[in-house]
Amino acid sequence: MENPVAVDLVEFLNASPTAFHAVDEAKRRLKIAGYEQLSEREDWKLEAGKKYLFTRNHSTIVAFAIGRKYVAGNGIYIVGAHTDSPCLKLKPVTKVSKGGCLEVGVQTYGGGLWHTWFDRDLAIAGRVIIREQKDGSESYSHRLVRIEEPIMRIPTLAIHLDREVNDAFKFNKQSHLAPVLATAVKAELNKPAAENGSVEKGSSDGKTNTNQKHHSLLLQLIAAEAGCEPNDICDFELQACDTQKSIIAGALKEFIFSGRLDNLCMSFCSLKALIDSTSSESSLQDETGIRMVALFDHEEVGSDSAQGAGSPVMFDALSRITNSFSSDTKLIPKAIQRSYLVSADMAHALHPNYMDKHEENHQPKMHGGLVIKHNANQRYATNAVTSFFFREIAAKHKLPVQDFVVRNDMACGSTIGPILASGVGIRTVDVGAPQLSMHSIREMCAVDDVKHSYEHFKAFFQEFSHLDAKLTVDI
């Protein structure tokens, strides 16, 4: 029988081809669970025992539930993750024509395994800004779009034309990564005629003419999905997406094969844990703190943006929540020192074909539970105190836990953990579920670890305030 948590994850993944869609799906689930949406542009009037959410740029989302016994200055218990994954994003000018083919100009986002994007059936998803007419005046709307049909492909060069390709597959990211959209001949034959001339002609009414920057065929496909005319598209943020669905697979149905497991798997598990730990009337009855999930954009490129973990999003949330219950600003530093962050980002499972890439005493395995990440040089924010709390919760619930340290002769990656720990001053532990093929267009993880992660995060939300009261360090 399939694990219901893993089945739910697959549904979340298939609904979330981009960070925008992931936030939209998270918001949909939170609203069903009774979370009220706030606007950062407005004043907040919060109440103990209530549940709230807000988004920034529609690519970062923060949700929190306030304990009925919360008072200003108490701690906030957070699981943080990220909504973005390495991908190919469409350039501001995508119109590329070469060798009788229409291609789409893309730029690499993050540190992807770009060779895995060749010979995949690709679609497009993201958001568009659309011009509209309402009550006789011009206005604009923000819409998410998703073309699910495969419309593009990045073809490899035949081995007959590159005999050394199996020794080393080398490609130029500028020249060789452009997806083929159509042949020029077919595109010309299928071009619709505008009422007053060709669709390629410039606009005479002063409006932005996107046909000069993009193939009209591409705009027609996007407009059809957005429910507008091509010339009503003012701008967009779109990316190429693999059309293959996420699935539970393997001979024993023990794996999940999917894109974007890094880091939508952790985003989902933390989101579901928050929702389920605050679902009943009594869930927050004895809670003295605040339970929060923060899913950030732009982790894969350093988090330095208005909606990344390097922005004031976290501090703004902590401050505004505290200030909603007291005007005493001295309580904010107290609240920060009483708070705790679980930075949840997928971890590297031991690869059976490359076992020498792992330190021999730190080899996380699939099905082995969440991995606590350590790095003496602070590439991860874990220390003995923060890891103790996380292990103690695992031990109480008989949940497996593993440890990871990168080899001394290899560089170590990082997460939002050190960014938030240093930027906000919050106690932090770095963890993640083990996976293979990280940053490939198609990754894999274990079904059991999805369940372990969800249960671990849920127990954290339910019990951390009581556990925290039992250990004092700075006295």
From TrEMBL:
Cofactor requirements of the protein: Zn(2+)
One GO cellular component term: cytoplasm
Family that this chain belongs to: Belongs to the peptidase M18 family.
Name of the protein in question: Aminopeptidase I zinc metalloprotease (M18)
E.C. number: 3.4.11.21
Source species of the chain: Handroanthus impetiginosus
The entry's keywords: Aminopeptidase, Hydrolase, Metal-binding, Metalloprotease, Protease, Zinc
CDD domains from the UniProt entry: M18_DAP
